[in-house]
Amino acid sequence: MSPPLLVALVLAVLFVWGVFLWNRLVRSRNDVRNAWSQIDVQLARRHDLVPNLVEVVKGYARHEADLLREVAEARSRAVRLASRGADAAGELGEAETTLGLAISRLLGIAEAYPELKASRNFLALQEELASTENRIAFARQAYNDAVARYMTLRESFPDRLLAGGFEPYPYFTMKDEAARRTPDVTLDDLAGRSAV
Amino acid sequence: MWEQIRSNRTRSFLVVTGMAVLLGVVGAALGLLFGGEGGTWIGVAAALAVWLALWATSVSRGDDLMLRIAGAQEVSRSDFPMLHNVVEEMAIAAALPVKPRVFVIEDDAPNAFATGLRPDKAAVTVTTGLLRRLDRDELQGVVAHEIGHVRNRDVALMVTAGVMLGSVALLAAVGRRALWWGGGRVRSRSGGDGAPQAAAVALALLVVVLAPIFAQLLYFALSRRREYLADACGAAYTRYPEGLARALEKISGVRVPARSVDPVTAPMYIVPPLPPGAMAARGARRPAWFSTHPPVEERVRILRSMAGAGIADYAAAFERVRGRRLVRHAEAPGPGLPAHASAVAPAAAPPGAPGPAERARAASDALLRARGYRLVQCPACGAVNKLPPPLAGTVVHCLRCGERLPGGHGGPGSETGCEDCSTPPRHSV
Questions:
Q1: Residue B28: how many CA atoms within 13 Å on its side-chain side?
Q2: Which range, of A71-80, B10-19, B35-44, B333-342, averages the lowest pLDDT?
Q3: Phi and psi at residue B122, to the nearest 5°
Q4: What ipTM is given for this predicted complex?
Q5: Which end of chain B is more exposed for a tag (fewer CB within 10 A), N or C?
Q6: How far apart are CA B33 and CA B205, in angstroms?
Q7: What value does the mean pLDDT take over residues A129-140?
């Protein structure tokens, strides 16, 4: 095999390899974006459910005006931040934590209002909210997994030679590990896990 | 985290290749028997053609037929809100492109399976017996296991391998019969010296007897491995291995035979369904080598001994319990995931969640509605009357108090069941 042919062959192999690496990075970044949009969808779902919850609770528990206002404010702040996309992931995490705690407290006061607790609407909303909390947690878990894969790929050799145009993405954290340990009534406590 | 899955994909590919080689060997043996030396390659080609034809039919017949054979019925979100929610949650955790469709089988044997050759065409099916017995955490574990099958593309894999097993069995049966009935003729046609011919026939005989057994062993080994992997995914998606472990214990503790078992879907069930008519307390068990599923106790033990909730944690627990590796040594398990990673509340069941009795009633009501029954509450006594479709347009009186029911329904009501009567009539077919 003549030397020029050999050089051409090596270049061709390198090119194909480069294309493979590039596409792998693109795929990984798309996974991150898709995972983020899923969080978005579920946060929006939570935001949509909150006014319903406030309405239902209002009907039975008029004395909780302060708490109801607090929930509404937490919601509007979260809605505002959510519209800013993945850049505001850090702030949004905090706002969502606040909202989550407010929702938990609102669900918690049902204990004091037996009629509210027995209301069919309230029970249905409770399952929906519990599921939404789970979905947010699972979506966040999937997003963080995707970010971890993407960042590892982006920073490791040889992909990092090509990764110039691939921006880093932040992890999505909610400070609820700590919040969960506070004496506040949370969804978990409310649930009274049906089996041991 | 997914490197383990990828390494297993390679291994599964090798197993399927092994089965393909067996298929080719059987084809070659048949070709040798019928056509002499020159027939071997024709035999191999014919065997692959048989496999391809069978594979094409089983792929094109689609998953809908599989679901229909199992008697599964698609259910709406309004009838089964919690089941739909759990499936959606797990689809999110597994980052599936779309939420799988949800089906229910009216069967008291608790079980579940997944179908769908592609992740975007998947369906999750559970029995009413499962819904009745499991709480939300356990249901979530089961659904996560099924979504794991979907995510790992096990349905396509097991259909491919299953068809291969069927082709090997079919061709080997043809060969055995040919040797039995036409052994002399086959030999004389090839003519020539007796000793090499006799050796060839003996070899072919050996192949057609042993190949189906080997193919079956490979198939079962493949199936068991995919079960372990689906368990690993179930733990990783929920971040709560205990839920799946408890569900497996509950399911295997109930010895109710299934109403029907389809061998094609059998490997997809979370535990192997007991065939209809099986003795309720069958002591004898299949040897582990000839089973599509690993023993439940072992699966539970692995899940319970997980240090975290990631795939790597499962691989480590697998090694501790079984003394073997789930993945090759090269793939050193990465950092594990903490169980209950951060906020994943282990699927809180809302307070006042329905107990088993209410869940069973809700499930059967929803299935009746899906069949066209109308559930009418009596305005006088509050009893819920279940009106079958043929009663539409007639005058019906409440079975308990005799009050005329609203909605222009009526009649003798002998077929309608009253919720509060001591013996509600059964509407199931």
A1: 13
A2: B333-342
A3: -85, 160
A4: 0.73
A5: C
A6: 9
A7: 86
Mean pLDDT of B198-223: 84
B347 touches chain A (CB under 8 A): yes
Q: What is the pLDDT of residues B390-419, one digit of tens each?
A: 666 677 777 777 777 776 444 444 444 444
Cβ atoms of B164 and B216 within 8 Å: the answer is no
Structural domain boundaries in chain B? 1-348+355-362, 372-429
The 10 Å CB-count burial string (b at 16+, else e) for B101-117 is bbbbbbbbbbbbbbbbb
Nearest to B349 among A35, A110, A191 (CB): A191
A176 CB neighbours in chain B (<8 A) are: 342-343
Give the angle subtended at the CA of B205 by the CAs of B202 and B210, to the nearest 5°: 125
Is the pLDDT assigned to residue B144 strictly greater than 90? yes
* CA atoms in the 13 A half-sphere facing the CB of B206: 6
Percent over 70 (pLDDT), chain B: 70
Q: How far is A16 from chain B (nearest CA, A)?
A: 22
DSSP string, B257-293: PPS---TTTGGGBSSPPPPTT--TT------GGG-SS
Distance CA B121, CA B197 (A): 52
Closest by CA to B170, choosing from B134, B212, B222, is B212
Whether residue B83 is predicted with pLDDT greater than 90 in this model: the reply is yes
Q: Is B359 on the interface with A (CB under 8 A)?
A: no
**B146 part of the active site:** yes
In this prediction, residues B347-358 reach a mean pLDDT of 50
How many Cβ contacts (< 8 angstroms) between chains A and B?
A: 108
* Helices B81-93 and B194-238, packing angle to 10 deg: 110
B82 within 8 A of B136, measured Cβ to Cβ: yes
Report the pLDDT value the prediction gives residue B288, as an integer from 0 to 100: 63
Residue in this structure with the two tokens 């006594």, named with its chain if needed: B381
Cβ neighbours of A145 (radius 10 Å):
21
Q: What does DSSP say about strands B123-127 and B101-105: parallel, antiparallel, or unpaired?
A: parallel
| Whole-prediction pTM | 0.73
Among B88, B93, B347, the residue with its CB nearest the CB of A142 is B93
Tokens of B266: 């059998």
Quick one: how far is CA A56 from the chain centroid? Answer: 26
Distance CA A166, CA A160 (A): 9
Average pLDDT over residues B188-194: 51
- pLDDT tens across B369-380, in order? 666 677 777 777
pLDDT at A55: 84
Catalytic residue among B89, B138, B146, B242: B146
Question: Quick one: pLDDT at residue A145?
Answer: 84
B368-374, long-range: CB within 8 Å, 24+ apart, which pairs?
Answer: B368/B427, B369/B79, B370/B73, B370/B75, B370/B76, B370/B79, B371/B427, B373/B427, B374/B407, B374/B409
C-alpha dist (Å) from residue A10 to A6, A16, A17, B107: 6, 10, 11, 63
For residues A109 and A128, what is the distance between their CA atoms, to the nearest angstrom?
A: 18
Euclidean distance between CA atoms B241 and B305, whole angstroms: 9
